[in-house]
Amino acid sequence: MKSQIIEQLGQADILLPSLVAEGLAANDRIKVRMSALQAASNHAQQPDRPATDLHVECPAAGLAPAALATLIGGAHLAGDGRMAAPNLAKLMKEIHDDVTAMIRAVSAGKSSEGETMSARLAAIRNAGALEASNEIEIARIAKLTGVAQDGTDSLHRLVMDLHKALNRLAADCSEEILAGAHVFGLQQEDRAPVGSFMKGLNETRALKFNHPGLETMATRSGSRLLIQNDIGTTDAHVVVIAVEKNSVTVTYTDVHRARAKFFIGLFDKFQAKWSGLDRHTAVGLGDDDAFFLVTGQYKAESSEDRNAFLAALGAAVVFLIDWNKARKLLRSWVAKDDAARILEWAARQRIGHRAFLELGGNELIGTAVRNAAPTRIGFGERLDQALGRNAAVDFLKTAMRASTEALSGGRSVRLVRDQIEADLVRHLERVDSALLGIVLRQVGLAHDVAAAIAQHIAALQGGRPADGALLTARAGRIERKADRIAIEARKEATRLDAGPIIEQLVDRVEEAVDELEQAAFIASVAPAGIDPSLLTALAGLCAIATTATEAAASGLAAAIEVPEGRRADSEDALDAIARLIDAEHAADSRERDVTARVFAGGFNVATSLSVLELARAIERATDRLAGFGHLLRRHIMTELSA
């Protein structure tokens, strides 16, 4: 009666905030009731499948779950494409009443808009779409809950338009702005939770940059505080937060299941309980006409914990804007799961992806590839294929961070592009370093064979048992392993277009291993009783070969660090290469000494041949390692000049 009197006095505006609150509450109810109608239809057509459970969504909308559970569970086909369900007539009336409540609020704020909405409802009602009966055509359910692509009106479309109108009215009729939120009808106890949500929102709001969205509205509805954020511009992308004392209920809808999962994952440090991602259908919304609804409940132990959760919710909302657009972009450079993980990292680091998108995103990375690696990364090739998974992910993270820092700090786009290109070059250099790491494994195997030959000769010198068959078998295993590594290195060098020097390094080490394996075979079949002077000369030659492999390994290990700008490592690498060249000269001299001793000693043919061939094989291995050293020096000088 009071409302009617105020309206007669022409002061209906004073009722607008409460009417808007009632309309928004009706919007929450109608969504659940329409979901129940869809669930009943699905259950009637597929009774063997478990019925959809709305026990979480109902309390969040202020509805008793038992009645809807009875309706859904009792739904069955009634013939001629119809469905029957208990209390269906009551549900249809309640849906009509909810729409009427929304229209009443819109009419109070903008009478002409309310008249249009009323006319649309009347047309829907006159078409029999809202007939109050315990039976309904299944096809009519789809029309009621869908949004036709051709623009044909439906109940769902009407509800969506009413919701948008209510949000506009709420902003217009708010009693005050609290920390940036449009609020009305609040009680004193509501101010802290609204302020906490807005504190989090305002901490990250700037990361949306020029994108619209993040307008927040809060109102008191009965015993609950309701907070709503518009997120962006997508119809089915909504977050509504209900606060009752220290209990927080989050209702979130999204057309992208992956984004909904991402949103939930940001709150893993809070003991919130989340419902499953229930799939709902509405023609014209998202892929396959589907959207997903999830409800989270957080029962805080204190108001401080409650406010911390609300602040986390507020801070997370900005990272939902254009999330799927960013994910699709990243998926062209890395695997799907890695794209989602990069976005999660960006959200947790409070970097976000909007700056990356605003600065060009795909074009930003594409330009870096064209300028920094035109021959290394082919058109359409993913970064994880060219750089490796971890390096590609790290590079894209750096690109996102650089974009955000630049756009936030007002730096030029040119500087950002240069920074990203430089980082890509560094990652490509690390790819070369990774390939050198494979070559280092080869050199280690060469050292193992040289050391095994030296141990065999030492055993012969000391008169200890020397198992030639064991030496041959061990050297053969090592040589085969080295071959596999060489094949792997060549394959990677070709795939990554790493340049000829890497493959040449692989070739030289492979040749050295082959010579050492041959030397091991000769040592294993050498006759017994070799003159001690010859064994001493051979032992010295083996020591030189072992030193050469150690110098090659040291030089290579230092060269791997050169792309990081460590000049000391380049000096260490060049020193090691100098030792390697010295070792090759020493091996030449020692091999001639062995030859001279053989020719002057009058030894039998078997001894002479075995000693000469062994010395020559070891000396050839040091030649190959010296060639390796010259190539490595050229590679290092190229890096330093770059």
Provide tags for this entry.
single chain; 642 residues; alpha+beta; 4 domains; nine-stranded mixed beta sheet; three-stranded antiparallel beta sheet; 23 helices
Distance between the termini: 85 Å
* Total beta strand runs: 12
Mean pLDDT: 85
- For the record, the CATH architecture of the largest domain stands as Up-down Bundle
Give a quick summary of the entry:
The chain folds into 4 domains: 2-169, no CATH class; 174-319, no CATH class; 325-410, no CATH class; 426-641, Up-down Bundle (Methane Monooxygenase Hydroxylase, Chain G, domain 1).
Structure, explained:
By secondary structure, the protein is an alpha+beta fold. It folds into four domains: 168 residues, no CATH class; 146 residues, no CATH class; 86 residues, no CATH class; 216 residues, Phosphate transport system protein phou homolog 2, domain 2 (Methane Monooxygenase Hydroxylase, Chain G, domain 1), CATH 1.20.58.220. Helices cover 65% and strands 9% of the residues. The chain has 23 helices and twelve strands. The strands form two sheets. Strands 4, 5, 6, 7, 8, 9, 10, 11 and 12 form a nine-stranded mixed sheet that branches. The protein has a three-stranded antiparallel sheet with strand order 1-2-3. The N terminus is likely disordered.
